[in-house]
Amino acid sequence: MDKVNRRTTLKLMGMGAALLMASGRVRAQGTPTADQVIQGKDPRLIVHNSRTGVLETPLELLREHERTPKEILFIRNNQVLPQGKTLEPIAPDGWIISIEGMVENAQAFDAKILKDLPQVEVEMVLQCSGNGRSFFARAQRASGTQWKHGGMGNVVFKGVPFKVLVEHLKLNIYPGAKYVTVNGKDQPPTLQAPDFEHSVPLEEALEKGILALEMNGEPLPAAHGGPVRFVMPGFYGTMNVKWVDRIRFDVAETFNHNQIPRYRVPNHPIQPGSEFNFTFENSRPNWHQKVKSVIFAPLDGEEVKAGNVLVRGVAWNDGLVPIEAVLVSTDQGRTWIRAKLTSPQSPYAWFHWETYVALSRGEREIWVQAVDKLGRAQPLDGTVHWNPRGYEWNGVDIVKVKVV
Amino acid sequence: MDKVNRRTTLKLMGMGAALLMASGRVRAQGTPTADQVIQGKDPRLIVHNSRTGVLETPLELLREHERTPKEILFIRNNQVLPQGKTLEPIAPDGWIISIEGMVENAQAFDAKILKDLPQVEVEMVLQCSGNGRSFFARAQRASGTQWKHGGMGNVVFKGVPFKVLVEHLKLNIYPGAKYVTVNGKDQPPTLQAPDFEHSVPLEEALEKGILALEMNGEPLPAAHGGPVRFVMPGFYGTMNVKWVDRIRFDVAETFNHNQIPRYRVPNHPIQPGSEFNFTFENSRPNWHQKVKSVIFAPLDGEEVKAGNVLVRGVAWNDGLVPIEAVLVSTDQGRTWIRAKLTSPQSPYAWFHWETYVALSRGEREIWVQAVDKLGRAQPLDGTVHWNPRGYEWNGVDIVKVKVV
């Protein structure tokens, strides 16, 4: 989209002059703060894009809460739902969701019926698949929002299991259906642009998928996909489609631009900076979250006092098996200490870890690596997973501190 | 097969009385030694099965050679080629190999033509997919030969790239072909038993597959699959089919009992001891070798002198990316030291590592964990990958030593 189109769109959407001046790259005087982009957000969030709303949580805010409050939870919108730029909820009553595709009895239903169906609650890490993208620049910059670590949070969703809905509606899914493709009420900025939708494996959707109505014990904020968000615990955030209004049963993944080539990584490593022609065979969508850890303290660039320093943070994966160990190194990987690990109730939530390390005066690095029970670990050099759009960064986390 | 059948078979095969008394479990007086089972083998090899020939290399022999000599290289035969129980070679002249399946110009050729085609040499770890099976017993014993670590070796194969043969014969492979299924001249013990064959992905076979005629610079010994073995570097040994006489292009993997349910692991972890109904969808064949390391010194049960002790061994994976780090722990994983790592020329060969650790008097454990550049590591508790037939063990290696 060129600048003129962008401005026209903004005008059509009836937004104020302040927004017109803003973008993720130009932070001039008058750049809107997070609460001006999404009503109700904490103004201390980092604004990457004020048009659709792309907000990052600084780690010093994120680490203060076991469950990330809605006010500071990151936002990554591809498209805008005009009434969605607020933390206020939208009532599900009168919100129509259609069931389409490989099903004998295609139909539509009012989302208000979800309120009366059995519900489940799941605590989980919600993470943008671009989170950490900026670190790929250690090898070669990847295109897209240059997230540090704040494109993630730990939240609790509550809603109706997808399987329960399928049973309630007595849907006769054809045996050949292998994927479920979910679309939201948000629309692309132009008629020519492809509408955002994502496919996930049907079997896993029936096992884990939730039509979420609540987050952290409150009605789901509009900005986070209310009234109904399709939640897939353990999957990257983008697969948790907001503002659900169409659910399609498919024999194959959607050919939508946002399923291929976007939101996809090569099956095998490629050279940083190289081009890649994405096919369904040579690549896979941003589905299961890779094992990852983040250092909450000390923060990168911080000054700490020499001696025994408490290092702490969180680690998580796709929830398939627990995190088994978190190792910390203060000598660039020559030796490692196993941190104390605390397991959450939910396999999809973050695990806390902490350990003391002895630091002497000078510029020091702290490295952390998580490994799960399947032996899936963070690569020491995360740029091995470089991909043109910079998804799924999961390299060993590194902070540099000044020890005084 | 019950005992009577087994004996009958042995008689039919015209083998001596000494062999009748032998098995991997009963080591009575008169049990044949390795050189009696396979002519030319080192008698110090462990005999697991004297009927088909299943021999394990003790680590104290294995570690003495950079390239594992034919005399001590492990043997795992599923079936017997009567003339194959010797380290002597078999001449390729007059050895007919047929090309079948999804190919326009199915045909047969004399293996002697391979001698005049361009050849390549590859150093690689050859490893039985059951290697390490005995360690699953930490959770629950898995059925099959109770291998320790000696079902592996590092060898050099030389032969004609599969792709070169395909081009030489001008094979017109149909576009739908996705797998290549290889069968050997060896036969099952009864007409009712399924003949041994394996399928590998066609794309990888064209990229890496070799029709090997030599091992370690000599004509391929009959016992190791001579005159022609289908070698797939980075794949488990079982996929390196011996005594090749049929090559079939397939749209799908073979339904042969040895491709499913044998030589297969579940896609997702299952509880140790549980049953599993293998399907093509819920499981995968023993193709790519998992990242793994083995401690060569000190050996399990050895006595060592207190002080700085040299710990050394090897590590390897499927050759897709290099081994990135090898970590050693002497306090059951609380702290780890990164070992010195030496990279081989070939990505498929073993990597040597070594480090000194300080050991005080008492019963001590040494643990080692390898991690590759993709972040694929050995699970601390290898039994997480438990599967009914005990394939693909790759847990952190542990030796117990007495420090005096």
What are the main properties of this structure?
Immunoglobulin-like; Sulfite Oxidase, Chain A, domain 2; molybdenum (chains A, B); mainly beta; 5-stranded mixed beta sheet; 5-stranded antiparallel beta sheet; sulfite oxidase activity (chains A, B); 2 domains; MoCF_OxRdtse_dimer (chains A, B); oxidoreductase (chains A, B); globular; 404 residues
For this structure, what is the CATH homologous superfamily of the largest domain in chain A? Answer: Oxidoreductase, molybdopterin-binding domain
Radius of gyration of chain A: 21 Å
Oligomer classification: homodimer
Q: Kindly report the CATH topology of the largest domain in chain A.
A: Sulfite Oxidase, Chain A, domain 2
Shape of chain A: globular
Count of DSSP E strands of chain A?
24
Strand order of the largest sheet of chain A: 5-4-13-8-9
Q: If you average the pLDDT of chain A, what whole number results?
A: 93
Domain Moybdenum cofactor oxidoreductase dimerisation (chains A, B): 288-393
Domain Oxidoreductase molybdopterin-binding (chains A, B): 90-253
Protein name (chains A, B): Probable sulfite reductase
Cofactor (chains A, B): Mo-molybdopterin
Structural commentary:
- 2 copies of one chain form a homodimer.
- The first copy, chain A, has 2 domains: 96-285, Sulfite Oxidase, Chain A, domain 2, CATH 3.90.420; 292-403, Sandwich (Immunoglobulin-like).
- In chain A, 9% of the residues lie in helices and 32% in strands.
- Chain A has 6 helices and 24 strands.
- Chain A has helices spanning 3-12, 17-20, 34-37, 59-62, 162-168, 202-208, and strands at residues 46-49, 54-56, 75-76, 96-101, 107-110, 120-127, 152-161, 179-184, 197-201, 210-215, 218-219, 229-231, 244-250, 264-266, 283-285, 292-297, 303-304, 307-316, 323-329, 335-338, 340-342, 351-359, 362-372, 397-403.
- In chain A, the strands form 6 sheets. A 5-stranded mixed sheet of chain A has the order 5-4-13-8-9.
- Chain A is globular, with a radius of gyration of 21 Å.
- The A-B interface holds A 268-269, 290-291, 320-321, 324-325, 327, 333-338, 371-381, 384-385, 394 and B 268-269, 290-291, 320-321, 324-325, 327, 333-338, 371-381, 384-385, 394.
